[in-house]
Amino acid sequence: MFNRILFNLFQVIVVLGFSPLVSGVLSRLKEIVQSKRGPSIFQPYRDLWKLFHKDEIVSEESSWIFRFTPYIVFVTPIFVALLIPVLTNYPLFFAFMGDMLGGGFVLSLGGFFAALAAVDTANPYGPMGASRTRMVGFLAEPVFMIVFFTVSFVAGSTIPYIVQEKWVTPLANFFAPSHVLLILAFLMLILAEGGRIPVDNPTGHFELAMIDESKSLEYSGRGMALMKWGGHMKLFVLMCIFLNVLVTPWGLAAGQTIGAVLLAVPLVLFKIFCLLLVLVVIESSLSKLRLFRITEFLGAAFVTSVAAMIARVFLP
Amino acid sequence: MSETTNQLLDNLNALAAGLFLLTAFGIVAMRQIKGCLNLFIIQSLLLAASAALLGLRHHSEHLYGVALVNVITKPLIVPWLLRKTSPAEIYTRREIDQALNIPTSLLLALALAILAYFLGMPLLNAVGPDFRGPNVPIGIAGLLLGAFTLTVRREAVPLLIGLLVMENGAFLTGISISRNLPLLVELAIATDGLIIVFIMGVLTRAVQKHIGTTAVGTLASLKEAAPEPTTNEVTK
């Protein structure tokens, strides 16, 4: 019991510690593809350090929502990290607090408060970005639902630790159409929710075109650092759900010892690195969609997820 | 063959069928004509893969023949024929208009796919348990989605592709319920398809030559009600 609590906390520390690194590696890889040198992979850490040591300016017109939001955005991915398998393939202490659907709701709570805070300051660009993220959000939500319902339909559960076993026992299940189509649909969701390229340009700083970035325009100092760190962690957590729950549980610790759990850290990071390579290929070969074409992108994701469900129903 | 290999082959066949369904959705929604053609090529390859996997699973040489005929005719000869016969200009066009907007037609396509399940179930119950698989309902879904493509598209080449998707769907159903179709029949069907492509390609070229567009969906407004421009052309 004590071990399980310890591992669960260790899981949170891994998410906290390595999520800026993952974002740094992703942006560095993208720069390399574009034949540039790019910033160091440790640049996100330096940014966070710098922002934590700067003064914070809060508008007099803003309400408590604006002040609370950075903490909510920072804390929600940590909550989700308690629920999902990051390092181990057996349930840890807090695992049964909520299922995947609950995790999805906790993650979207952060997005909801970030959108509210963007409206709160009455900065002209904030509400525009907030309404756009809500547009992407309400189009992405049905896909999330169908993905989770299909998962529970196939695996008979929405607890991530039970789900991940189903895809590889027996190994032939890995190639089941519903599994592969779910992976495709969820990959599109990560692109949409993480603000990656076909939906939003994470490196673009042109106010009229930005979707996700504009929500943190008014923040500075510590609030900005927390928002950024929360964003890194959200991407990391989404990748963990994708890789460890939906794709395979390979590379996760099976043993109860500290050594096995420590060994799982490089293996999981390697898996994430492979996913980053895929993301870099997608982001470098596609261009950003026009705002009203996002409907079609997420419509495609929706159709893919429903096709996963249909393919499951069709198997006699 | 051992139980695990059979299971793996079954799942791989189901995967090919699932991706087949996805490409059929893609053909309904894709904006570019070139993308539409590429998706059709992928779909035909998936059909061939499904036939080969079923052949391996049930030790049927005929299905290998089907796979081979499919690989040669649809992904290779059909695009070649289309490029030879229809005007090259249409492949560079980006946006093609549809009768419905894309999300609506996707949702209708989903409804059709679910309808295919109810159409396929009685058929599945009629055949022996050995013939059951995802191919029958997904093949029927392909048939319906191809017909749906025919109704919503307004460009000549995607219409033709819709027709070919219908044929692909019928094939996908066919290979799972009749494993010993003579190769002669397969060849006849394949040649038939090629001739359709050829005629439609030539027709597209003729249509483009006469009215300067391949958006055949707008041809409905070409009626005798407005005789002035046509008489002018005739007198010239």
Can you walk through the features of this model?
The complex is a heterodimer of chains A (316) and B (236). With 316 residues, chain A is mainly alpha-helical. Chain A has one domain (2-314). Helices cover 68% and strands 0% of the residues of chain A. Chain A has 10 helices and no strands. Chain A is globular, with a radius of gyration of 19 Å. Chain A starts with a helix and ends with a helix. The relative contact order of chain A is 0.17. The mean pLDDT of chain A is 88. In chain B, 76% of the residues lie in helices and 0% in strands. Chain B contains 8 helices and no strands. Chain B has helices at residues 3-29, 33-58, 61-85, 102-126, 135-152, 156-177, 183-211, 228-235. Chain B starts with a helix and ends with a helix.
Oligomeric description of these chains = heterodimer
Helix segment count of chain B?
8
Largest interface, with Cβ-Cβ < 8 Å? A-B, 27 and 32 residues
Q: Approximately what portion of the residues of chain B adopt beta-strand conformation?
A: under 5%
- Please bin the fraction of helical residues of chain B: over 70%
- Overall average residue pLDDT of chain B: 83
**In total, how many beta strands of chain A?**
0
Distance between the termini of chain B: 74 Å
Key traits:
heterodimer; A: 316 residues; mainly alpha; 10 helices; 68% helix; B: 236 residues; globular; disordered C terminus
Short description, anyone?
With 316 residues, chain A is mainly alpha-helical.
Helix and strand arrangement:
The complex is a heterodimer of chains A (316) and B (236).
Chain A: H1 2-33, H2 43-52, H3 64-83, H4 100-120, H5 125-155, H6 160-166, H7 177-193, H8 221-247, H9 258-285, H10 294-314
Chain B: H1 3-29, H2 33-58, H3 61-85, H4 102-126, H5 135-152, H6 156-177, H7 183-211, H8 228-235
Helix pairs in contact in B: 1-2, 1-5, 1-6, 2-3, 2-6, 3-7, 4-5, 5-6, 6-7
